[in-house]
Amino acid sequence: MEKIYDWVQNVTGLSSEVQNKIYISILIIAVLWLIRSITYKIVCNKTENAQIRYRWQKSLTYFSVIIGILLVGRVWFTGMQFLATYLGLLSAGIAIALKDLIVSMAAWIFLIWRRPFSVGDRIQIGKYMGDVIDLRIFKFTLLEIGNWVDADQSTGRIMHIPNLMVLTETIANYSKGFQYIWNEISVLITFESNWQKAKDILKKIGIRHAEHLSASAEKKLKEVSKKYMIFYSTLTPTVYTTVKDCGVQLTIRYLIEPRSRRASEQSIWEDILVEFAACSDIDFAYPTQRFYNNALEGKEGTRIQ
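Structure (tokenized):
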């Protein structure tokens, strides 16, 4: 064994003491990696649940890295009897050279502690929107939604975002808390249309597609109101009326699960097209130009003589 040490020292210039530390460090890393791999394999054999596997994989990785840093640090800094001294020197050096990484690590601790979002949640942070598919010490990963794709559907792109944005940008979570979002579909009809009849048709369509969510939404609302001051006077679908330049605008407002928004809009619009096509007194409005003769078309009391 001494011959090996002497040969390595002659080739690399490393003393036997330094070589010992290197060999012990490699052994520690190998043992921790082996323990992590075996444990994760056991978990995979026990469950098919992807979320449980993911959490175990992340937890084992974090545990292995932390224990590895502590054990290897004790090998190389044997003269330091107190762990606080070692960690103090280590953190001071890293803080100077790696400011952004330190902030990202602090943000990761915030994510683990406060959990503004978790893997599987749909979020918007700053200008980025997507489903959280991975969460690491320095960054989290989103499967992008929106952008050039309508109605919050996936674009297929994966975005890697530094954790430090969690501390500097506004976070909107589609999935946590209330777990439903309000969606609106606006329908514009001509002034000559029977808007009351159209409004009744739209309300029936809204109830047909979304009223079944009202009961579960009310239950969720009671739960989340214990944590946040959230309250709504009504959770059932409704239709609002307003007037635009080229017609009467009727807006269906209803609750929907975030990932079902586009499918619900398609179903509702198809029903609207079918129902309105059967009505001779309801027409869709669109930007157009027309000539209006007040003397012939105006109401009797408003005609210019």
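The domain at 181-277 is CATH 3.30.70.100 (Alpha-Beta Plaits). The chain is about 50% helix and 20% strand.
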